[in-house]
Design goal:
The complex is a heterodimer of chains A (about 450) and B (about 120). Chain A has about 450 residues and is mainly alpha-helical. Chain A has 16 helices and 3 strands. Chain A has 2 domains: about 400 residues, Ammonium transporter AmtB like domains (Ammonium transporter fold, Orthogonal Bundle); about 30 residues, no CATH class. Chain A is about 65% helix and about 0% strand. In chain A, β1 and β2 form a beta hairpin. The longest helix of chain A has about 30 residues. In chain A, about 55% of the residues are buried. Chain B is α+β, with helices and mostly antiparallel strands and about 120 residues long. Chain B has a single domain, classed as Alpha-Beta Plaits. Helices cover about 25% and strands about 35% of the residues of chain B. The chains are: A mainly alpha (about 450), B alpha+beta (about 120). β3 of chain A pairs antiparallel with β4 of chain B.
Chain lengths: ~450, ~120
Amino acid sequence: MNDPVTAIQAGAGVLNPADIAWMLVACAMVLLMTPALAFFYGGLVRSKNTLNTMMMSFASLGVVGIVWALAGYSLAFSPGSSWLGGSGYLLLRGVGIEPNGTIPHVLYMAYQGTFAIITAALISGAVVERIKFGPYLAFICLWTLLVYAPVAHWVWGADGWLAGLGALDFAGGTVVHINAGMAALVAALVVRPRHDYGRQALVPHNVPFVLLGAGLLWFGWFGFNAGSALGANGKAAIAFVNTMLAPSAALTVWMLLDFVRSGRPTAVGAATGIVVGLVAVTPAAGYVSPLGALAIGALGVVPSYFAIRWRSRTRLDDSLDVVAAHGLGGLTGALLTGVFAEKAWGGTDGLLAGNPRQVVIQLVACLVTLAYSGVASFALLKVIGFLVPLRSREGLEATGMDLTMHEEEAYASGEGAILIDEMSMFDPAVGLVSGIAASPSGATGGAA
Amino acid sequence: MRLIVAIVRPEKVNDVLGALFKADVKGVTISKVQGHGGETELVATYRGNRVKMALQEKVRLEIGVSDPFVDVTVQAILQSARTGEVGDGKVFVIPVEKVYRIRTGEEGRAAVTPVLRAG
């Protein structure tokens, strides 16, 4: 996908069994990243919002998957202009098992779909604990069509104009991370802070979930980056190795920064370091040496580390720091790709190899993505917000989004839960409830 | 000497603790409890089974205070825990026969008066 040359050659090429086998696995691995993100985000919120937060990722597996198959893939990858794909693949017409490169076209479509799904889900971290579920779903569906698909076309489409410019983006630094990060910034501003933001300490309710999510994200990311080679080959191998090494460096540096600052490396910090390292190496994975990947991981986390510390003292309630982790991490990674890329490892020569111009090209690609994503995401949210309220009432926000949006609790004790509707044979139980409700206060053991 | 027992909404606990702190009331024990005070029951659905949550999560605060602090404490709780909806909770003021501070064996008012920098 990254490599425009190999990206769109529908009908050309010959199917290669090894490539197909690897890409089938890679596709499943990238799909797993969205449930992983659900755990990463779910652990970071308060317990009363766990299910809603996790559902914002899981629901993307549903709705964005559909939107992608019906129209998104066509807008992103069918031949069109340099600005947008055409209508050639609408409803997956003409997307069959014929080779696209060396894998079946339909597999290529599905693999790209897993990217669209997680990119939309990433945005949710900026608006958790307050945005209503329906408007959120409407937003990610429209966003996938109107923001994700065009940007994917610019960078990865055979006739995309950023690809023509020579911008290096191996697996989606601009398309996925800068794009989602900017949309997250806009969404956090439009939806406004949570009621309790800045008034109370809002602490993660389940840090083991956060670590679980980070670990699974790392695993899935091998499919994301090494799969972007679109085959079982040497390029996949270098992308795979870089995906291992950059987060190693990022995790270590994050712990060091924590240690220098407070003497205590934190678990949430370690998990965040892994994710930022993965984000930073995403555009570079197939273009830099393993040592370059170590450097990108180590350097890439520094801006994000300080941005996260600074952000929480502002009125910007980007609740789970999508902007700092994905937007800024993606930006840093894209620029560092221009620094460390080497022809010998499959890229264009970058700054260190004597081509400073590559950094400028990288910067242009980033700025264009930031600008388009910012404006289009803002317009989309305003339109949806004009039709339906984006926020739930303050009192419902206090009760928690799990009960108000989904009528479920993540950690229900079951005490005091009484079956209603069905099973009239349990009428005495229903009677018991009205008995409690009707009894004078004080007769129920002093509970208020 | 009074024991003040307050049952409040979990989401109001931080506000209440803040108000108590501002009123110079220190020394409080809290516990998570479940109860019912006539508010609308929340409904949950699990795989099609509709379930009425007859008991709501609440938090109970227990505060031992000397007589001059009773009104201050009660007012701080009333103002900070209130949302205006049914289910805001209750405050009970209960006479206390004796209070001891375990560390020193002090009794009565001295036992509920906070010491600056304990020890």
